[in-house]
Amino acid sequence: MPESPTKFCRASSPKASEPPRPPPLPPPPPFRRLPTENEAGPAKATAALKQEAPFEPMYYFFYGTLMKPDILKAVLGPETTPLLRTAKVYGFELANWGQYRALIDSTPEAAVTGCAYMVQSAEEAYKLAYYETNAYALTICKIHFIHAEGQKEDEAVHGKTFKYAGDGQALKEGRFDRTLWELRMGHKLPRKWHKGEKQVKEEGGASG
What we know:
By secondary structure, the protein is an alpha+beta fold.
């Protein structure tokens, strides 16, 4: 919690030989940060989430490691018995991010098949987001369920899925993803590093 302006110490009057000192900076605005897993654990972090908005159960679409019941159970906790339903989403495609699969935007007719799970609580939602890290962003999607027999599509519901948080086109083309790098590092990449040395020299003109 920032200090109140009234708590700043009053500086003594400057001597004649000293230049006047600038006034103290105003206190920073309050910053609310949810506790991390290591600081508070899912229970306290969930309490902070509940203060923001009441949680409503919703289907999440999984397409990678979370499709495996043993991994999903390890993420959510031993008391959980995951019930997964075969499903697909449209408008996305999969790309490789190292050893992991990443969901990126695609054409409207493109489809990705995976599994859907009903997230029951804010604590489960927090655990899933913590597992996925900030390399993935939670996004709204329409989940189409599929019957086991004949792979026929059943009803569709609105849900959520974890989409790649960086530049999907760069990932697909195997290029360096400046967007994701800046997101994970927390600061901008120096301009000369992503413009290219040749382009930087051309922008600098003939001087030097």
